[in-house]
Design goal:
290 residues, Neuraminidase, four-stranded antiparallel beta sheet, mainly beta
Length: 290
C-alpha cells in the first residue's frame, strides 16, 4: 500500500494537494506560497500569494487555505484554493491561479459562507474541495463539540454567483464514539471509478479554530458517488485505517489527497500530512479500486 514517504522540511503545514500535468500543487494553511513539485515529489517552483516575513503566517492573520482543486474557467484549466471560513475576514478568501502563467487572482467568499450558515452550518470549517460531475463538492469538518461532517454540493464557478447559487448540504459519516471525533480533512474524486475518497483524522479539539493532539488518520471510500450526491445522507462503503495498514502513519495527521493514476485495478494517491510542527510530509500509496 505505502510506496514512498517524502518530507518537505522547508515548507509548512501542507493542507491541500492537487495533481495536474505531472506536477503536484501543494498549499499550506499558513504558508506564504503555493508549492510546486515534479512527479518525483521534489520541489521545483512556487507561486507567491502572501508576503509575511515569517515562514508561517500568524494564526490570527492566515487565510487558512485548506483546499485545492482544478476548475475550468473560460476554457482555461485553473487551480481553485479556498479558505476554511472558520474566522472572518481573513479565512473567507480564496484564489484562482493559472498554473501556466502563474497569475493569481484573489476572490472573496463572504456571501457564500454566510449562505452556508443560513443553510444550517453552525460552524464553518471547509477543509476539502473537488470537482465532481455537474458541480463542485466541498467538505465541512466538525469537531468534538460540533459532531457533524457535511458535504456541500454546489454549482461550478460558485464564487461568481454567491447570492443565488444552489447549495445542498449532505451529512456524511457517523461519530458514535463520544471519546473521539472523526473529522473530514480533505477529499478527491476518481472519475474513472466514480468514487469519492475522503481523508479523515481524529484531533483533540473542541472548536473550528484551534489545533489539538493528533490521533489517527483514515481513508473513507464512497462508491457510486454520482448516484448519491443528492441523497439526504452518505456513509462510506469502506474505511481504511492507515496506521493499521502501515505503522509509519502513526502520529500523522493526513490533511489532503489527490489522485495520480488509475490502472491495473489500483488507484495511486498522494496524501499530504500537516503535523503542526512547521514541516510537511507526503505519502505515495496505492489502494484497490474495489
Amino acid at each position: 500500500m505505502l510506496i514512498e514517504i517524502k518530507q518537505l522540511p522547508a515548507y509548512p503545514s501542507a493542507s491541500g494537494i492537487e495533481y495536474l500535468n505531472k506536477k503536484y500543487y501543494i498549499i499550506g494553511d499558513d504558508a506564504n506560497n503555493l508549492l510546486i513539485t515534479d512527479d518525483s515529489l521534489t520541489a521545483i517552483d512556487s507561486i507567491p500569494l502572501y508576503s509575511f516575513a515569517e515562514k508561517r503566517i500568524p494564526k490570527n492573520l492566515k487565510a487558512d487555505l485548506e483546499s485545492i482543486t482544478t476548475v475550468q474557467v473560460d476554457s482555461v484549466e485553473k487551480l481553485l484554493l479556498v479558505g476554511s471560513g472558520s474566522l472572518a475576514p481573513n479565512r473567507n478568501t480564496g484564489w484562482l491561479i493559472d498554473p501556466v502563467s502563474k497569475k493569481a487572482d484573489s476572490i472573496q467568499l463572504d456571501i457564500f459562507y454566510t449562505r452556508l450558515k443560513e443553510h444550517g452550518l453552525d460552524e464553518i470549517n471547509i477543509e476539502g474541495i473537488c470537482s465532481v460531475p455537474g458541480g463542485i463538492l466541498l467538505s465541512n469538518r466538525g469537531n468534538k463539540n460540533y459532531r457533524k461532517n457535511f458535504l456541500v454540493y454546489t454549482k461550478k464557478a460558485f464564487w461568481k454567483k454567491q447570492s443565488d447559487i444552489p447549495i445542498t448540504l449532505i451529512p456524511v459519516g457517523s461519530n458514535t464514539d463520544t471519546t473521539v471525533f472523526n473529522g473530514i480533512s480533505g477529499m478527491a474524486y476518481v472519475s474513472t471509478t466514480d468514487q469519492l475518497i475522503l481523508t479523515v483524522s481524529t484531533e483533540d479539539t473542541g472548536n473550528n479554530i484551534d489545533d489539538g493532539a493528533i490521533g489517527k488518520s483514515y481513508l473513507w471510500i464512497v462508491d457510486d458517488f454520482s448516484a448519491k450526491k443528492n441523497w439526504a445522507a452518505i456513509n462510506p462503503n469502506k474505511i481504511i485505517d492507515l496506521e493499521k495498514k502501515d505503522s509509519r502513519f502513526k502520529g500523522q495527521k493526513i490533511e489532503s489527497v489527490c489522485v495520480t493514476s488509475v490502472e491495473d485495478g489500483l488507484i495511486q494517491l498522494v496524501l499530504a500530512a500537516d503535523n503542526d510542527n512547521g514541516i510537511s510530509t507526503l505519502f505515495r500509496i496505492e489502494i484497490k479500486q474495489n
